[in-house]
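Listing 4. Sequential folding, example run.
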Amino acid sequence: MEKIRVQCVKNGPYEVQGTLTIVDANGKIVSSSESTTYYLCRCGGSGTKPMCDGTHGRIRFQSE
C-alpha cells in the first residue's frame, strides 16, 4: 500500500500526495487517480471545493 502524505502549506491549502480518491459530501467522486498531488482548500473560500482555487491569497488567509 502506497503512503499518503498530507502537508499544510503555510497560509495556503493542504498538499496531498499519493494514490487516492476524493469524494464529496454527497458521495460523488470528485477525483481519482494514480499517484499525484492535490491541493485541497483549507481557507473555506474556494469556489471549486474541495480543491484549492487560490482564494486563500486573495482573502489573505492566515494559518496558525
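-- end of first protein; second protein begins --
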Amino acid sequence: MERREISQAVIMRLPRYYRYLGELLGEGVERISSGELSRRMKVTASQIRQDLNNFGGFGQQGYGYNVQYLYDEIGRILGVDRRHNMIIVGSGNLGRAIANYANFERRGFIVSGMFDIDPEMIGRSVRGIRIRAMEELEDFIRNNDVQIAAITMPKTHAPEVADRLVKAGIKGIWNFAHTDLVVPEGVVVENVHLSESLMRLSYRVCSMEDDGNGSFSE
C-alpha cells in the first residue's frame, strides 16, 4: 500500500491534539465530539475531522472520539509510544536546561549522553548524565543505539558536528544553532530558532498595537 503524504501543517498540529487529549484524560473524560474538542482547542471541528481523516478518522458518527484510544493512536503516530535514545551536543545553559527537563522522559526521549569541547565541562554531570569529550562522540552513538541528537552549540561548529552525527548514524537532529544544516536524504532536521520565534511574537504584539491606533509607533 502506498504511503499517504501528510502535510507539514497537519503534522505540526498533532502534538497539540496529543496535549489536549492528555489533559482530557486527566479530567476523566472518556469520549468527546469534534465540536467539543474544537471549542477547547480553538480549531474548527471540520479541521479536526480533516486532520484525523489523514490517519483513518478514529471517530464514530453520533459517538465522537474515544479519548484514550485517540490519545494512544496519536502517540503511536508521533512515535512517543517507543523509546528514543538521544544525546545533547553542547553543555551550555541551553543544553543543560534540556537535560534537566525530565518531562521528555515521559514522552520516551531519553537523554543518554552529553558532549562538549570545553575541558572545564568534560567530566561533569547533569541529572546523572556525564558530559563527555567530542572524541567519544561516534563510538558512543554506535554503542548506545542513539537515533536523535540535539545541537545546542554555536553555529560556527554546528555544520561540522552535524556531518559527524550523520556519519555516525544519527537519523534526527534537533537543531538549536542559528544556522541551517545541510543533511543527506534519510536524515531529518527540526530547527528551533529561539530568536526568530521571539521576533514573530514581537511582530504579532506590534500588529495588535498598530490595529488599535492605526499607525506605527515611533
